[in-house]
Amino acid sequence: MPEESISTELHVVIIGAGITGLSCARSLLTAAPHLRVTILESRPTTGGVIRTSPFAGLPHVDEAADAFLLRVPFAAQLANEVGLGEQLTSPVSAHASVWRNGLHRLPAGLLLGVPTQLSSLATSRLISPLGKLRAALDLVLPRTSVASDSIGTYMRRRFGNEVHNMLIDPLVGSIYAADTDHFSLEMVPQLSALASKSRSVLLTARRMPQPAANIAASPIFGAPLTGMGALITATQQAVEKLGGTIRLNSHVSSVEPASSDGKYFVHFTANGVSETLTANHVVVCSPAKHSAGFFSESAPQVSQLLAQSSHASVVMVALAIPKESLPQKASGSGYLVPKPEQRFITAVSFASQKWAHLNTTDSAILRVSLGRDGMPLHEHSDEELTSFVLADIKRHLLVDLEPTALRITRWKESFPQYRPHHVAHVEHLENHLATKMPQVHLAGASFRGIGVPSCIQQGVATAQKIISSIQ
């Protein structure tokens, strides 16, 4: 159907101006230029949990995610489409370590921490001899049920507690701020595939097709030279150029059916003034738990299901220190701290060693993560958080750091936690929503995958669904 056949009277309201909402709006307006699209964002800026700002004399240092996966195409494709393709860069230092009474380089051949090569595991000093023998039992153990849908339950039975605690949980946990004993196996597709294809994880990994040489040698991660915030800015500009409207400081209070004609009222407050928009479609891209109140009267069951969602809080601390104060053993891109060793820090990124464009001053830049699911630290004062960071780094690297610059960013309830059977929970939620309000859609990290590429994919897929329904 020609673009002109889509009426200008059709209005889509998107709640949330993170990367999901922005990519959804851009896709809608690209496919249907005459569609009216409004994004409502409660914060004073767009981007959600993607933010880049100046730090320690550098113009662009990320305050949360600093890269996206290149082998999942959606983020790289969007970057190219909004004019950032020539500005993408990749880490120059890829190897990472785990701290266990010292730094131990991660063994080769891991898939999100899961060993796929016993030979690499055998030479690692991170795992004890008994831990290695226990991991090798995966080759002979009978099939393990995936009915629990818990990463921890499944992987502990296959590889034992030590490999799970020192490898699998730290790597998965660093992505999701998760406790993998309470995290859905099905929601991590790479691990779910290993668990479901045959009896032994190691044998399944051996049978997996190896990537072509050019793919294996290509970078895994990428980011704009000017930080992840550049992807937000460029996508926002594309939305506005296409005619979309973005309203900041707009706090949605409720979404309800307008009448029997299939439209919806979206009630919100902007700068102290109550307003209402009428929409043909509504896309909820805000965090699930925070969105529950939108439906407390119009769809109570939907509201209750959204309220059951969990979100972890994380603190990101950036430090600038003289380069000479970083010990030689602090090599590579950084290190992870497994839960049995954790006090406050969960991961440290040696950002100026990881990224060439951050290695342009006399300072070394560290990005330190604190807190996770079950260990919230965001309510501590700046002084307390600073002392936690310096004490933990002294314990890990045996050095007293004296930062020349420090920045603390709190991400309260910002990392969705996919509890076991999350997929069934989302399907149940969407079924209730389809019954009550069939043209209200859910998209974003709370629902079908965390990470920038996944969020973009959900935004684009939701836009395509809406376009198909109105043509």
From TrEMBL:
It holds the Pfam family Amino_oxidase. The keyword Flavoprotein applies. Keywords: FAD, Flavoprotein, Heme biosynthesis, Oxidoreductase. Its cofactor is FAD. Residues 19-467 form the Amine oxidase domain. GO terms for molecular function: oxygen-dependent protoporphyrinogen oxidase activity. InterPro entries: Amino_oxidase, FAD/NAD-bd_sf, Protoporphyrinogen_oxidase, Zeta_carotene_desat/Oxidored. One of its GO terms (biological process) is heme biosynthetic process. Pathway: Porphyrin-containing compound metabolism. NCBIfam families: proto_IX_ox (TIGR00562). This is Unannotated protein.
